[in-house]
Amino acid sequence: MMYNDTTLKMKIRILEVSMIEKYKEENRMNDAKRYDVVVERLALRGAKLEDMAQITLDLQIKYLPSLTFELCLEHVQKVVMKREVQNAVLTGLELDELTEKGLISEPLAEMLSSDYGLYGIDEVLALAIVNVYGSIGFTNFGYVDKTKPGIIGKLDAEGKKDGKCNTFLDDIVGAISAAAASSIAHRFAK
Question: What's the whole-model pTM score?
Fold first, then answer.
């Protein structure tokens, strides 16, 4: 079913509000206050939850043909609600932004600004996100990190432009998408 932009935004906001209240009550490890900060910081860097939900849908539709975008978005929101995910996101975003501002010393600044292939800490931080969902989280992340579908590829390419650093952001987005796909897989496992 196709929605116009206004209808989709309204449905997404209704989902967010109900999901936030539900998960705030269910789990003390969730942080509803920081959730809004994380979502806003991601969006300011060009990474919207809806883009992550689309990747999640693309990862899982083959296995669950009746899967909906809305359910994928709910699982992305559920992942972002987790405190340890929020900590990883905020840490990675801060390092990318400090690199852009020239506030990281060498040789780390060069490794981050060039997204040096053997640096690997960006992937380690992303693995902290997918680790919450077990081995399927790792395999989903490995796949999206290699193929860079959707917004991940766009963020990766943008991060290679002068003055821009998305070394952590593309992996964070991939990890959130992979974790949400893993959450769905766990929920519907037979």
Answer: 0.86
